[in-house]
Amino acid sequence: MPATLIVQSHRQPLPCAWIDTCLASVREWARANGYDYRFLGDELFTHVPREIRDKTRKQPVIATDLARLHVMREALEQGAQRVVWLDADFLIFAPQDFVLPSTSHAVGREVWIQEDKHGAPRAYKKVHNALLMACRENAFLDFYLEAATRLLWQNRGPMPPQFIGPKLLTALHNVVQLPVMESAGILSPWVIRDLNAEGGPALELFLRRSSRPIAGANLCLSSQQGGAVSESEMVSVIERLVQRPNGVHTKTELT
After folding, report:
1. Whole-prediction pTM
2. Which end of the chain is more exposed for a tag (fewer CB within 10 A), N or C?
3. Shortest CA distance to 40 belongs to which of 12, 60, 18, 20?
4. Which residues are CB-contacts of 166 (< 8 A; sequence separation ≥ 6)?
């Protein structure tokens, strides 16, 4: 088992071609750093109890959030020194600056920009699990897995897609301050549109509220599936980020 293992997963066939571009960016980054790489299909769900899979049938992303924790723990138990999960729609566009932290575990940074009731941009600063890292000496992964599983067993009502992912992690982060890989970001539809337009209020606010420049970002396939951005807008923003990463890789005034 290698010192560092990078894991990704998505059901085949991929729903759109730009995801393959994202996957390729992660594979190349892993290769350049000497990391092993593993891609999983439906075998990702091997360790998720059938009852939980049935309960999350209408929200499969919740089962995926739990499954990644099982896969990561298994890799550590089999000898990996460090395992990193990256969502399939995560693009590494500045690989030289996408450097894993020296902490025993880490989550990604979410600076989500959306309109308020007056149509002005508003920032919500959270953490996310589109990047999730754990090393063998970490004490967090088992706790997170147990807590997430218990919440799913106990829940009897509807669950939002981010129930055991960003929502649970952000709640924990607000109390214990989890280690955050600030360069692993996430782009909301409004920021994507501003990037394609080469500027705008959402992008400006994103840059101000980001503690550090980002070198990779979750592009949120769900934004396209929900109609907030089009496939052509996704393709365009990927091209811009790869060709001109300084669009979100330049620090401006902090607030």
Report:
1. 0.95
2. C
3. 12
4. 110, 126, 127, 128, 129
The strand pairing partners of 106, in sequence order, are 133
Query: What mean pLDDT, rounded, does the chain reach?
Result: 94
- Give the closest residue to 182 by CA, choosing from 250, 110, 246: 110
CA angle 64, 215, 196 (to 5 degrees): 90
* Phi then psi dihedrals of residue 166, to 5 deg: -60, -35
CATH of the domain at 22: 3.90.550
Summarize pLDDT for 169-208 with one digit per residue, the tens: 999 999 999 999 999 999 999 999 999 999 999 999 999 9
Whether residue 79 lies inside any domain: the answer is yes
Q: Specify the pLDDT at position 180.
A: 98
Report in angstroms the alpha-carbon separations of 26 from 4, 37, 155, 190.
14, 9, 35, 24
* Helix (H/G/I), strand (E/B), else coil: 181: strand
Q: Structural domain tally of the chain?
A: 1
Provide the residue range defining the domain that includes 138. Answer: 4-247
Confirm whether 254 is domain-assigned: no
Q: 127 with 169: CB under 8 angstroms?
A: yes
Tens digit of each residue's pLDDT (9 = 90 or more) over 145-180: 999 999 999 998 889 999 999 999 999 999 999 999
Does residue 62 fall inside a structural domain? Answer: yes
Categorise residue 88: left if φ over 0, alpha if ψ from -120 to 50, beta otherwise. alpha
Residues in the chain: 255
Two tokens, residue 137: 């000496």
